[in-house]
Write a structure and sequence with these properties.
The complex is a heterodimer of chains A (about 325) and B (about 325). Chain A has about 325 residues and is of the alpha/beta class. Chain A has helices spanning about 5-30, 45-55, 70-75, 80-85, 120-130, 150-165, 180-185, 210-225, 255-260, 265-275, 280-305; strands spanning about 60, 140-145, 165-175, 175, 180, 200-205, 230-235. Chain A has a 5-stranded parallel sheet with strand order 1-2-3-7-6, sandwiched between helices. A two-stranded antiparallel ribbon of chain A has the order 4-5. Chain B contains 11 helices and 14 strands. Chain B is α/β, with parallel strands linked by helices and about 325 residues long. Classes of the chains: A alpha/beta (about 325), B alpha/beta (about 325). The structure holds thiamine diphosphate.
């Protein structure tokens, strides 16, 4: 499949955005702007971007604790994300949620999640709603190789299989769930095989190649829109940083990181753009400079934004009051 | 007994290790308890001593961790399972409520369930709504589980050893912000019985019944108020199920005033049960309302400003205590 220059540059732009956002967030956390934990997706940009580029704005995603890349790839605003990480009032969740809970319903981002496996049933449910209303929309559920062992995966996948729901289970297999290697958590090497238990297709792709992810997702989305049901897309990838910032990473296998660093999705794709003469060095640089500026602005916005008013803490638990009672 | 200072974390590790050395049916399993040493560092070094069979890393699968703990217990093992955050207990809700808690009763007493569920509780700071909860009272309404909330390193060791030698399922709540706290702990094997509250500080004006980390905050409040001539008696129930009603009532009989403090939400928290016990069995001693100091009834927010507002602290206890005299004066 040949892709236009604009599309390829857009892939690159979004991947750089995700990478630079993460690095800035890590930096700002160290400097004290961000009070809570961050699970960065450095190294996994290609799966987030490739998958989301196969979606339309009206499609929805559910995300995870490692969700910044998913949100940005789906169109999330860096400045509201950074403000949320900084626990500030104009943040995506008014400072109530932080990294683990960012959502943007206008963009179809139903939420990151602090509970591993927490998003599977909701993705199936959103897909059910689209199916019932005969809308050509799909739900895409991001999750990790650790999450696939939660019961919720199996329950949601079975619903998706038996009801032919328009849902894409987008697995980012980065070989570890926290400190536990994937081969100690499951007897399977290719987790995509699990789709066969629920009678929908499962494919494994190079998760560091955004085009491979895009094409597999595109195929799954097209099938789902036509009533063909669910797909499991497994992206084989690797996380370059700790499970969380500060993780001592005692569990890594020797030499493994160095091998994967050779497959870093961003320089690899950059080289490809130049080698194929899709873009010039100047054009690529312009993309990178543009992102740097976006992030400078996001950090400045987050820094200057006010903290939430204390009374805000009690607002927003329920929508309706009853007999004047809120809670 | 030979006392020395160790941390709450070390005390828990020591209790597990004592029992694992003595009894080969005791083993530990949970997410990242082995190589990683537990996300909270509690089982650090235990893999080296006991091996991967008995310090067992599991997949991310809370329902199966607790349910497998039940199964192993019913056929004669004594599993310790670790659930990294109390918030994740609900991923295993059925296993806890319908399986673990009911097994003995439903089987006419045949099922033996010596299962210890070690789980963390409390807000570690800006961890937001799904990693900060204090779920102690969630299971107080489920007969069949004992509920333990150690507030000091010594109690952590002694209560855990009691749990490990019992025949019933125990939910053992470890507060995340207590792991690094040090205290004097006997070096020897010793147990602290369930259902025996500790009078942590004697006093005469107001009883503060404090759960978990609030014991520490209550002691801070007592120290501060002592300077004003107000004397607090601080009581730590140590186990919520079973609850040592007698010690609580005896203290209230002496002081006539009571504040119940816990980090769990106010509505339906442990304090609701304790207040009801006092209302039914100690009402004749009470000179004022039964007050609660607890988290406000909203999910825990991420923002430090909001979180501090929602969580209870020593200042809230002091305010509650002072209100007894404010009311009188008014
Ligand atoms: C129900 C539940 N169990 C455990 C955790 C703690 N935890 C957070 S992330 C994580 C690892 C998840 O692994 P995976 O799904 O592979 O995603 P990755 O972190 O590799 O992106 C664990 C165990 C949690 N948040 N929720």
């Amino acid at each position: 499949m040949t892709q236009g220059k604009e599309f390829l540059l857009e892939i690159y732009r979004r991947m750089v955005l995700v990478r630079e956002f993460e690095l800035r967030a890590i930096e700002e956390r160290r400097r004290g702007l961000i009070p809570g934990f961050i699970h960065s997706c450095v190294g996994q940009e290609a799966s987030a971007v490739g998958a989301c580029l196969a979606l339309r704005k009206e499609d929805v995603i559910t995300s995870t604790h490692r969700g910044h890349g998913h949100l940005l790839a789906k169109g999330g605003e860096p400045k509201y994300m950074m403000a949320e990480l900084a626990a500030k009032a104009p943040g995506y969740c008014k400072g109530r949620g932080g990294s683990l809970h960012i959502s943007d319903f206008d963009l179809g981002i139903l939420g990151a999640n602090g509970i591993v496996g927490g998003g599977f049933p909701a993705a199936a449910g959103a897909a059910l709603a689209f199916q019932m209303r005969k809308e050509e929309r799909v739900a895409l559920c991001f999750f990790g190789d650790g999450a696939i062992n939660e019961g919720t995966f199996h329950e949601a996948a079975n619903l998706a299989g038996v009801w032919k729901l328009p849902v894409i289970f987008l697995l980012e297999n980065n070989l570890y769930g926290e400190g536990t290697p994937q081969d100690q958590a499951s007897p399977l090497e290719d987790l995509a095989i699990r789709a066969s238990s629920y009678a929908f297709p499962g494919v494994s792709v190079d998760g560091n190649d955004p085009l491979a992810v895009y094409e597999a997702t595109q195929e799954a989305v097209a099938r789902a829109r036509k009533g063909g049901g669910a797909t499991l897309v497994e992206c084989k990838t690797y996380r370059f940083r700790g499970h969380y910032e500060g993780d001592p990473q005692v569990y890594r296998k020797p030499g493994e990181m160095a091998e994967w660093m050779k497959k870093d999705p961003i320089p690899t794709f950059r080289e490809k753009l130049l080698k194929d003469k899709t873009a010039s060095e100047n054009e690529v640089k312009a993309v990178e400079d543009g992102i740097r500026q976006v992030l400078d602005e996001a950090v400045a916005f987050a820094t200057q934004a006010p903290v939430p008013q204390v009374e805000e803490a009690l607002a927003g638990v329920y929508a309706d009051t009853h007999n004047g009672l809120v809670f | 007994m030979t006392m020395r200072e160790i941390t709450y974390r070390e005390a828990i590790r020591e209790a597990m290790s004592i029992e694992m050395r003595k009894d080969t049916s005791v083993f530990l399993m949970g997410e990242d308890v082995g190589v990683f040493g537990g996300v909270w560092g509690v089982s650090e070094g235990m893999l080296g001593e006991f091996g991967a069979e008995r310090v067992r890393d599991t997949p991310i699968t809370e329902a199966a961790i607790i349910g497998a703990g039940l199964g192993a217990a019913m056929v004669g093992m004594r599993p310790i399972v670790e659930i990294m955050f109390g918030d994740f207990l609900m991923c295993a809700g059925d296993q806890i409520v319908n399986q673990v808690a009911k097994a003995r009763f439903m089987s006419g007493g045949k099922a033996n369930v010596p299962l210890v569920i070690r789980v963390t509780t409390g807000a570690p700071g800006s961890a937001a709504a799904q990693h900060s909860q204090s779920p102690e009272s969630w299971f107080m309404n489920v007969p069949g589980i004992k509920i333990v909330c150690p507030a000091t390193p010594a109690d952590a060791k002694g209560l855990l050893l009691t749990a490990l030698r019992g025949q019933d399922p125990v939910m053992f709540y470890e507060h995340k912000m207590l792991y690094g706290e040090s205290g004097a702990v006997p070096e020897e094997d010793f147990t602290v019985p369930f259902g025996q509250a500790a009078v942590v500080r004697e006093g005469s004006d107001v009883t503060v019944i404090a759960v978990g980390i609030m014991v520490k905050k209550a002691l801070e409040a007592a120290e501060a108020l002592a300077k004003e001539g107000i004397s607090l008696e601080v009581i730590d129930p140590r186990t919520l199920v079973p609850l040592d009603r007698e010690t609580l009532i005896r203290s209230v009989a002496k002081t006539g005033r009571v504040v119940i403090a816990h980090e769990a939400h106010e509505r339906g928290g442990p304090g609701a049960e304790i207040a009801a016990v006092l209302a039914s069995d100690a009402v004749e001693y009470l000179d004022g309302p039964v007050l609660r100091v607890a988290a406000r009834n909203v999910p825990l927010p991420y923002s430090p400003v909001l979180e501090n507002y929602v969580l209870p602290d020593a200042a809230d206890i002091i305010k509650a205590v002072r209100s007894f005299w404010a009311q009188k004066g008014a």
